[in-house]
Structure formats: structure tokens, C-alpha cells
Task: inverse folding
């Protein structure tokens, strides 16, 4: 009989090293993305297409970074409203921030699935279950889309939106409102024929009217904060944009972001940004500068927010990125 192969002494060490590498991958990736983002912004501002633009105003750019970072707590606060469970804001913030960061480095919004996985680890014994976490996240996204469409529809009254943009805003508004209404109708009238997990999912997505109105108000304020960030970013790179131009830019690039084909929606965002600025008389190197700097700055701010969310858990910080990474790969 053949001799049984004995485990080598270094096998355990290899497993430990491999698990540690995976555990620290997301924090290292976030830190690298934050540093690389600042480097890219500096290089873009110094050379290439942006070299022909006005010298950047770093004070305005720093203000835009702060505004972009402030968006994450607002989005987390909106999700905490739809959860309707005392999960703890720290856990919701960490899950929302880490998932949003992964959305910027993965195609197809794969980071959204990781939000539920991170929340499961971060909430601990307060974990509300997959169905409630997923349903509440869907409700938050539908209401974020609804708030965006309300902002876009209001802006369309005063700004020269192209016909396709008006049609897209109306269509998205209809879909978001229909999704929220459908969740409530199916849960109330067809719950007896649904699997238990599906009924719980729809019950979480069908939030009560007071919660719905409160969440939409929070998310509308979130878009207002983003509007300020866009205004600061455009003026920082030499585009002397008014409030109306910044709003037009935000709405058109927001519509483009509904098709996340590549990480950070690269390419599609730049096309929408240049087109939006051309409509307000800004073209050439300054428009290209804005289209390059704005998404990079947003990614850096998201990475910083994710790093903060992980750091809030102290010694347990390694568990969150491990959960996010496993879900993102699934």
C-alpha cells in the first residue's frame, strides 16, 4: 500500500497567510484607491487635456470633496429609515459606504449585493435577516430614483433639457413609483401564495407612507447636497457654471449612470458630462477636465467614506471587507 502523504508543517502557515491576505484586501484596495485618486486628480489638473484649462482652485476642489463625502451618511440614513429596525446607524453606514465604493470599482453595480453581506456582519445580533435587509435596500434605491426624478422633472421646467432626457426622467419616475406601489399591492393581496422569504422581502420594500415621505425628503436633500458638490467641482476646474448649469450637468450625468457597464461607468459618464456642458456653452478642454475630474473625485470621496466606515469597528474591521469581498465575488 502506498504511504499516506502527511501534511507539511507549512500548510497551516499558507492557509493563515492566504486568509489574512483576503481579509485585508478591501481596506488596502480602498486606501490605494484614495491615494491613487488624489494622484490622478493632480496629474489631470497638471497635464493632458486639462492643461489648457484654467488653473484649478484647490480650495473649491477640497470643498467638493467634503460635500461628496457628506453624501454617504445621508444615503445611509435613508436606508436606516426603510429598515425600520434598530440595527444601529454605524452598521448601516459601514454597509452603505463599502458597497458604494465597490460600485465604483466593479461593473454592473455588483457592490449593491455586498451591502447586505456587510450589514449582516456589522449589525451582529441586531441582524434583521436577508429578506428585510434586501427589501429595505430596494425600497431605498427606488425612493432615491424617485427623488432624483422629482428633482429632474422640476429642473426640466426651467432648463433646456433635450427631449430624450425629459422622456427618460418621466419614464424613470413612472418605473420607480410603480415599483414602490407594486411591492405594497403584492404584499397585501397576494402574500398567501408567496414563499415566506418573498413575502418578507416585499413587506420590507413596501414601507408605510410616513416612512416613505420621510425617506424621500432625506434623499431629495441628498441630491441637493450633490448639486452643491457639482457646482464646486465645475468651478474648481475653470467651468464658470451657474446653479442651473450645475443642475443640468447633475441630471444628465445621473441619467447616464443608470447604465453601469464599466467600473465607475467610465466612458458613458464622460460623454454625458461633455454633452451637458456643451448645452450651456462650455466646450473644449474645460469640459473634458470636468468630465475627468468629477467621477475621480466622487470615487475618492466614496473610498474615504468606506475606509471610515470600516475603521469605526476597530478590531473587527477585517470582518467587514471579507464579507463584502465574498458577496461581490458571488
Result:
Amino acid at each position: 500500500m502506498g504511504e499516506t502523504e502527511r501534511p507539511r508543517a507549512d500548510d497551516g502557515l499558507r492557509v493563515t497567510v492566504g486568509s489574512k491576505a483576503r481579509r485585508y484586501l478591501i481596506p488596502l484596495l480602498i486606501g490605494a484607491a484614495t491615494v491613487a485618486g488624489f494622484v490622478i486628480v493632480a496629474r489631470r489638473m497638471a497635464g493632458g487635456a486639462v492643461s489648457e484649462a484654467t488653473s484649478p482652485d484647490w480650495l473649491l476642489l477640497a470643498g467638493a470633496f467634503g460635500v461628496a463625502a457628506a453624501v454617504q451618511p445621508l444615503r445611509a440614513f435613508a436606508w436606516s429609515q426603510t429598515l425600520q429596525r434598530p440595527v444601529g446607524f454605524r452598521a448601516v453606514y459601514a454597509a452603505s459606504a463599502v458597497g458604494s465604493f465597490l460600485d465604483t470599482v466593479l461593473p454592473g453595480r455588483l457592490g449593491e449585493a455586498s451591502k447586505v453581506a456587510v450589514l449582516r456582519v456589522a449589525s451582529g445580533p441586531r441582524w434583521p435577516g436577508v429578506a428585510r435587509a434586501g427589501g429595505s435596500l430596494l425600497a431605498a434605491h427606488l425612493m432615491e430614483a424617485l427623488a432624483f426624478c422629482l428633482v429632474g422633472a422640476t429642473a426640466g421646467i426651467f432648463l433646456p433639457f433635450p427631449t430624450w432626457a425629459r422622456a427618460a426622467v418621466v419614464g424613470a419616475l413612472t418605473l420607480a413609483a410603480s415599483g414602490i406601489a407594486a411591492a405594497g399591492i403584492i404584499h397585501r393581496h397576494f402574500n398567501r401564495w408567496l414563499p415566506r422569504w418573498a413575502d418578507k422581502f416585499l413587506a420590507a420594500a413596501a414601507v408605510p407612507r410616513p416612512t416613505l415621505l420621510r425617506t424621500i425628503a432625506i434623499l431629495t436633500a441628498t441630491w441637493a447636497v450633490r448639486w452643491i458638490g457639482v457646482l464646486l467641482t465645475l468651478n474648481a476646474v475653470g467651468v464658470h457654471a451657474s446653479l442651473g448649469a450645475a443642475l443640468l450637468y447633475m441630471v444628465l450625468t445621473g441619467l447616464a449612470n443608470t447604465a453601469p457597464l464599466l467600473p465607475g461607468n467610465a466612458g458613458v459618464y464622460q460623454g454625458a458630462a461633455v454633452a451637458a456642458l456643451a448645452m450651456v456653452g462650455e466646450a473644449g478642454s474645460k469640459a473634458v477636465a470636468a468630465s475627468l475630474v468629477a467621477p475621480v473625485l466622487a470615487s475618492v470621496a466614496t473610498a474615504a467614506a468606506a475606509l471610515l466606515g470600516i475603521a469605526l469597528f476597530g478590531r473587527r474591521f477585517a470582518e467587514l471587507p471579507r464579507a463584502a469581498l465574498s458577496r461581490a465575488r458571488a
Q: What stands out?
A: Confidence is low (pLDDT under 50) at residues 1-5, 9-18. Residues 130-158 form the longest helix (29 residues). The chain is about 75% helix and 0% strand. The chain has one domain: 21-329.
